[in-house]
Amino acid sequence: MSATADHAEERTSPAARLGFQPEQVVQEIGYDDDVDQELRESIEEVIGSDLVDEEYDDVADAVVLWFRDEDGDLTDVLVDAITYIEEGGAILLLTPKTGRSGYVEPSDISEAATTAGLSASKSVSVGKDWSGSRLVTPKAAAKSRK
After folding, report:
1. pLDDT of res. 12
2. What CATH number is associated with residue 20?
3. Which of 13, 58, 62, 140 has the most CB atoms within 10 Å of its CB?
């Protein structure tokens, strides 16, 4: 593969587009049979290790949060997820796309993120069934604006 192909692959890797980096510790919350395995594998490939699960007892650099409408109160789940990440870390909130079972309204995501003290830095389609919102703590949001 040429150097050009390597760079092209980097740009198209969903995990790289979402800001994941080598050697990060990424905790996964809300895993179930319906998650996007290709996205999970892409993240693991970029970070160079497996995602850690909800039982991980240290802080992570980022959290991948799979959330469906029936999973409870999104604000509570986001507040809990914040406790798992390093200061300045990000939460990748993944919700089913419009028309899919468990769809979450964008206004609900925005309201829950704001209430939890997070800012949405970007939204992205991450597969045929899932949409992602990259949510950051206020310190990370301030750093990205500098």
Report:
1. 63
2. 3.40.50.150
3. 62
Cα gap 56→78, rounded to integer Å = 17
Per the structure, the count of domains in the chain is: 1
136: nearest Cα among 73, 62, 77, 83: 62
Torsion-angle region of residue 4: left (phi > 0), alpha (psi -120 to 50) or beta?
alpha
Residues in the chain: 146
Reduced 3-state DSSP string for the chain: CCHHHHHHHHHHCHHHHCCCCCCCCEEEECCCCCCCHHHHHHHHHHHCCCCECCCCCCCEEEEEEECCHHHCCHHHHHHHHHCCEEEEEEEEEEEECCCCCCCCCHHHHHHHHHHCCCEEEEEEECCCCEEEEEEECHHHHHHHHC
Structural domain of 71: 3-145
What pLDDT does 19 receive? 87
Question: What average pLDDT values come out for the chain (146 residues) when binned by 10 residues?
Answer: 43 79 96 95 96 94 97 96 90 95 94 94 83 82 46
User: What's the token pair of residue 90?
Assistant: 């990000």
